[in-house]
Request: fold
Amino acid sequence: MQRGRTPLRRRVCLVGVLTVVAACHESDAPTEPLADPPISFSVTDPFTGSLPIGNTSSPNGTLALPTYPTPMLLKITVSGQTTVTPYPDTYPPYQLDAAGETWAGHCSGGMYIRYYPYEWWPMVPCLSRDYYTPQSSISGYAILGGTGYATRTGGVGGLYSYAGALSVTLEPVKAKVSVKASKYVVTPNQTVTFTASISPSAVGPLPIPWSIHWRWVPDAGSQTTPCGAAITCPLQVAASGTMFVDAVVNGEAQTASVHIRVINCLTGNPLLDSLPILDGLKLAMDSSGVSDSNPAARRERKIQIKCDIYGCRAELLPLLPLPPLPDSPGDGPCKSTFPPADSTVIGEGHVHPFRPFSGLLSQMPYGTWDSLPDMCVHRDPQDPSDTLRHGSGFGPSQPDYNHVGGTGIPQWIMDPDSIYMIPGIPGGTPADDNARKAGKQSWGRKVGSCTRV
Ligand SMILES: [Zn+2]
Reply:
């Protein structure tokens, strides 16, 4: 018996295989979402199934694969090998992987994966065994959708027997939707342009399928659905609210959102008037226990403002345990410790959760101000003037200035009455410290009837 040999075909096929593999390392390209509206389904788990030999005289068999309601970008892996034993045993047994082998113009033992209506076929081109070393597993990427199955092709006749199962894994490629706003703070009826994107957007030349819907939910009032499925959405914003993008990203239902703050009384500070700093400080203050009647139960909470190509956001940082000693790292009523800032951090902030005393110390007690808990009174026995650290209404503390000197990142501080900013001037010399203090700015949280935060 002579085996069909197709070296030319094999060479062409290998070029095809290598092209696909090489393309998988190319950089991601932006993709447009599908025009179809999102539907509510979620396919996130990998599928693994086994295709055993049903009949030792033939490798032929079929394995049902998952149904995907919309096209999905999947990593496909076929593992295992088929052992082929000639009969009578004039030749030794040999192995085939999912590529199978060409024989008399047919493919034997090869794995095909078909989907309707989006199909990919075959798993890999059928190869001539004489020029090919079987692999323990073969992987590739494809966009599949609808209903599908895997088939192992039939044998070469009754003079061979077959053994060994192939396993098929279909793994949805993960990607995440995000939404970017052109501005996060605006005056009434300014236009904000929202842009949705996913990351990663593709694997090699294959774009990750996704679709979106926009949903604007005002802080007060009823929601609207502007812009349909377009990738960008300009919206004239009358009052504060949240833009949601409801997405199906490679079969997975996801939602991203961004809050837009509309105020009549901008601060005049470009960062404070454009980035989600006010929202971040509000989140930190709301999380601080500022209304707790026990001042010792309150905590300075801290935020980082992060900006990357997917937009800007204020992240409330995790609350650390109370510092065991006044100079230990930790978060307390009048102390917070920041983690190192990565390159996306363009600002930091924290709150002083105590109503400030704005009068003269000689007039104490007077007005509605909060006493600091004992643990905040960190006295230096050599310095009688060091009685109260920050938090009692005098704006940034010396440790706050020192922190900015170390990071060079601007720091925003809010207490129940005011917002303060230390400019991001780095350095530890007295001149640096003086420059930071000279550059300090402050704003009231309210101006007349206008509430900034
Ligand atoms: Zn502070």
About this structure: The chain has three domains: 7-30+45-172, 174-262, 273-453. The pocket of zinc ion is lined by residues 350, 352, 390, 397, 400, 413 (CB under 6 Å). Residues 214 and 245 are 5 Å apart (CA to CA).
